[in-house]
Amino acid sequence: MRGVFVTGTDTGIGKTVVAAGIAWLLKKKGIDVAAMKPFATGGKFFSKKFKSEDTAILAAATRAVESDEELNPVFFRVPASPLMAAQILKKSPPDVHGALFPLKKLGIKHQFVVVEGIGGLMVPLTEREFVADFVRLADLPVVVVTHPRLGTLNHTLLTVRVCRDFGLDIRGIIVNLMPKKPSAVERNAPHVMQRLAGVPVLAVLPEMKKPDYKEIGRLLEKTSIAEKILA
Ligand SMILES: Nc1ncnc2c1ncn2[C@@H]1O[C@H](COP(=O)(O)OP(=O)(O)OP(=O)(O)O)[C@@H](O)[C@H]1O
Ligand SMILES: [Mg+2]
């Protein structure tokens, strides 16, 4: 299976717009791409068709024909980690191996699969398994979405360390939400994290008024990200 796992240093960091942007860009290059969100949670259902808004965005970016269940096999209606959401709902935590099947199915049907994580790599899925375990089982390279604000070196270096701990193949970092007028900290953050993490910063994306995956995809087109994740 060929694909990429898009994780982030935190929730709300831009994983969905970046994952959808990558998928849109690869599709533009003529690759048959699918995008999925194996685990999602949320306070309410997004629409009749999609329980999670993230799945809806990923499906739109790839013009998917698959059902919500195929693209998002696990959804809990509590905005929390899958483990906590399941416990609050008095349900069983997700079957981590079971969630691999729909991913593998997409991987057989399509040339490339872009997979969005949930929160960060140490989000618990069960008492014993984290998102990083799922990535290892899926055997996909990782792209980390992060921010340039104060605190980012800690968040980014922790995430890169966890990638290494779990033996994940980290392809690069995307710094999202760079302000129009960055402070010295924000401006220098991508250079410093690249140096200290020993991982390339593949793109720096600006803070946008109305972010959308096509605009992100067009910005990513100017970088080497497609080559890096297709390599
Ligand atoms: N570069 C950007 N400029 C402005 N807003 C952005 C940018 N990137 C993301 N956003 C906005 O920030 C919010 C969070 O982004 P997104 O949903 O992609 O994050 P996420 O990491 O996928 O979050 P979650 O953990 O909920 O899946 C969204 O409203 C999105 O539109
Ligand atoms: Mg998301």
Folded structure, characterized:
The chain is an alpha/beta fold. It has one domain (3-230): Rossmann fold (3-Layer(aba) Sandwich), CATH 3.40.50.300. Helix content is 42%, strand content 18%. The strands form 2 sheets. The protein has a 6-stranded parallel beta sheet with strand order 2-5-1-6-7-8, sandwiched between helices. Helix 1 packs across helix 9 and helix 7 (152-165) packs parallel to helix 8 (184-197). The longest helix is centred in the N-terminal third of the chain and has 14 residues, at 15-28. The two termini are 13 Å apart. Magnesium ion is lined by residues 15-16, 54, 116. Its main location: cytoplasm. It catalyses: (7R,8S)-7,8-diammoniononanoate + CO2 + ATP = (4R,5S)-dethiobiotin + ADP + phosphate + 3 H(+). Homodimer. The active site is at 37.
Low-confidence stretches: none
In CATH terms, the superfamily is P-loop containing nucleotide triphosphate hydrolases
How many DSSP-defined strands?
Answer: 8
The tally of domains stands at: 1
Q: Main β-sheet: number of strands, strand sense, barrel status?
A: 6 strands, parallel
CATH fold-level topology: Rossmann fold
Number of helices, where a helix is a run of at least 4 consecutive DSSP H or I residues: 10
Mean pLDDT: 97
Can you give the helix content as a percent range? 40-55%
Quaternary state of the chains: single chain
User: What compounds are bound to the protein?
Assistant: adenosine-5'-triphosphate, magnesium ion
DSSP strand content: 15-25%
The gyration radius over C-alpha positions equals 17 Å
Which class in CATH terms?
Alpha Beta
